[in-house]
Amino acid sequence: MKIEKITILPGRDKKGNREGFGKIEIIAGQKIGIVGSTGSGKSQFLYDIDRLAQGTTKTKRKILINDRTPPAEFRHDASKKIIGYLTQHMNFLTDTTVKDFLETHLDARGKSHKKHLVEKIIESANKITGEPITAELNLLVLSGGQSRALMVADLAYVSESPIILIDEIENAGIRKEKALELLSEKGKIIFLVTHDPRLALNTDKRLVMKSGAISQVIHTSIKERGIAHYLSWIEEYTLEVREDIRVGKRIEELKLICTPL
Ligand SMILES: Nc1ncnc2c1ncn2[C@@H]1O[C@H](COP(=O)(O)OP(=O)(O)O)[C@@H](O)[C@H]1O
Ligand SMILES: [Mg+2]
């Protein structure tokens, strides 16, 4: 089944007040930012999407897929699971090699015929982490950055989930813009919890969380995208200057600043 649309029906905030929106609709291909202070309900929102909540989670929200209540098999059958989840907490802590892990996962997803792709998957993970992963490494010895990079590549090539949830990857030690690029293939819906202004402004819209409720839905304006572009430029420039300093150069001239879009 093709995922064309996700609809969020209002639930309740932490005090039990009804959320103040009618419904929120997200269509295939959109990237949605989730912002708000600590404890405001960002991770809980992702959990609701992951569970395809039907009024029984803490928030009482309901999630519809293509305007309907999603079939139960979407939640229970691993091979039909439509949602990929990248969290702060690592969820593979098994004593097995990278290669075995990927092959077992391909089997579980009914994709045994794709086992020749394992090397390619590892290669793409290595574009996201600075510390190269090899097929024979044991999962138990992977660093935080390596295991997240492997999870991103796994989400992109093994799970191929049409809906991706990402919870604060900022401190994960990976090239996050590259990771997002790899995940945001055409047609996917991405929910991204982030405190990084560049990532938050590089979305189609953002949900502002407050006291457990979605308090605002802000559509990203063209000006905001321009500013995101400008912030990325500053980041790149900072990296350049850092490298120049490292190799012993003097920094006495400011590079001309590009104008925001
Ligand atoms: N609408 C809600 N009703 C009841 N509890 C909620 C609601 N939203 C969030 N919570 C709970 O509040 C706590 C903090 O929320 P969390 O999603 O972890 O915040 P954040 O990720 O923004 O830091 C969690 O225990 C969460 O389950
Ligand atoms: Mg959180």
Provide a compact summary of the structure:
The protein is an alpha/beta fold and 261 residues long. It is 33% helix and 17% strand. The structure holds adenosine-5'-diphosphate and magnesium ion.
Could you describe the 3D structure shown?
The chain has 261 residues and is of the alpha/beta class. It has two domains: 151 residues, Rossmann fold; 41 residues. The strands form two sheets. Strands 5-6-7-3-8-9 form a six-stranded mixed beta sheet, sandwiched between helices. Strands 2-1-4 form a three-stranded antiparallel beta sheet, with no helix packed on it. The structure holds adenosine-5'-diphosphate (ADP) and magnesium ion.
Bound molecules: adenosine-5'-diphosphate, magnesium ion
What share of the residues lie within helices? 25-40%
User: Strand order within the widest sheet?
Assistant: 5-6-7-3-8-9
Under the CATH scheme, the architecture of the largest domain is: 3-Layer(aba) Sandwich
CATH class label of the largest domain: Alpha Beta
Features:
single chain; 261 residues; alpha/beta; Rossmann fold; 2 domains; six-stranded mixed β-sheet; binds adenosine-5'-diphosphate
Helix and strand arrangement:
Blueprint: E1 5-9, E2 24-27, E3 31-35, H1 42-51, E4 62-65, H2 73-76, E5 83-86, H3 98-108, H4 118-126, H5 144-159, E6 163-167, H6 176-183, E7 189-193, H7 197-200, E8 205-210, E9 213-219, H8 222-246
Parallel strand pairs: 3-7, 3-8, 5-6, 6-7
Antiparallel strand pairs: 1-2, 1-4, 8-9
Helix pairs in contact: 3-5, 4-5
This protein binds adenosine-5'-diphosphate and magnesium ion (MG).
